[in-house]
Amino acid sequence: CRLKELMILWGNNRYPQHIEATVEKSHPALRPNASAAFSVDLDGEERLVIAQEIKRSYLRHLVVDEVVAAIRQAVAQEHIADVYGIVLLKTGSIPKTSSGKIKRRECRLRFLDDTLEAVGQWRQSQLQQRSITDLLSQLNVASSES
User: Which residues contact 9 (CB under 8 A, 6 or more apart)?
Assistant: First the structure.
């Protein structure tokens, strides 16, 4: 069975397909149709994780920090959501069905037990956690609350 598609991030409904489309366009090293956005529970809160394949031509000279920064910025701007974890995957290694659909549930389980074929990864530390207000002000977006 498919993992529930809808994620609730910072009180807003988000669909993984929309986040994946944003991620794939955020940096030229990222392979199209080869990403999974899913949530993990952290202290009772849904936190966003991205698993994304890297194009083969970028593997040798991959600058993980640059790709991570591009993904985080794109997701923050398009979806007003902060990313908790990013796993950059070896080309062709993201779990898919026989018809080519991404297996988000398997990606999530493999993220949790650290068995994805990572070529680079990043996880947010306690110090990096941002509030929605911090994120909005960083993006120079006026908060509707004020």
Answer: 39, 46, 47, 48, 79, 81, 82
